[in-house]
Amino acid sequence: MAEAAIKKKRPKNLKLSSIRLPLPGILSILHRISGATLFLLLPVFLALFERSLSSAEQFAQLKSCLDNPLLKIILLGLIWFYLHHFCAGIRYLLLDLHKGIDLPAARASSRLVFIVGILATLLIGGKVLW
Amino acid sequence: MVNRVLVGAHYGLKDWIIQRVTAVVMALYTIIFLLTLCLVQPASFEAWHGIFANGPMKFISFLFFLSLFYHAWIGMRDIWMDYIKADGLRLVLISATAMALLGYAGWAVQILWRM
Fold first, then answer.
1. Which of A84, B42, B93, B103 has the fewest CB atoms nearer than 10 Å to its CB?
2. What pLDDT digit, counting tens, does each position of A2-18 carry?
3. Inter-axis angle of helices B11-40 and B45-53, nearest 10
């Protein structure tokens, strides 16, 4: 009984709005969200890849779809998802090797992931989409 | 070292390693692909088609797709196990994920070798 009472009194800090997620935490949840989104869109990507390779007409048609600015923004966002997942993943691989494990280094590397991810998105997206 | 055997199959460690190996394969492919884009600058269908018609490129693209699907399998299974508490629904989602990814692997082979 006493044990149950203690258990009940434990703070359940599940009110997400009361938790201020630090940058490595934001990186982490975005790693998960980007991964899940890319997974869910796999059939779309495969279909687009297939069509782009099927004929010159289909290729030209897909290319003309890129004139749509809304589509460009969506694709830019997906490129960022891919590159964020890529950069954050490399950070995790280094953490697995115990590189940059202490708090200041972990914070600095998560900032670097955001900077590199966004810059690479602008560079690659700008080159491919515009 | 305490020799504790909790499960016999060690599939947790195996998956942990495969998730990282497939990540490295995909990262290397991504760099090769981006360099190829820089070199070829495929504005026409012929140039784009030519990238993947090349034998070695087909081979590593296939490895990329297999790595991607296995990587996605481990990641999505972890996500379902973290958030879906109802056993039945979890089983359905995990099975559907596995089936979809197996199908995508066949689809990817077809795309690469039909061209």
1. B103
2. 556 556 677 666 777 77
3. 140
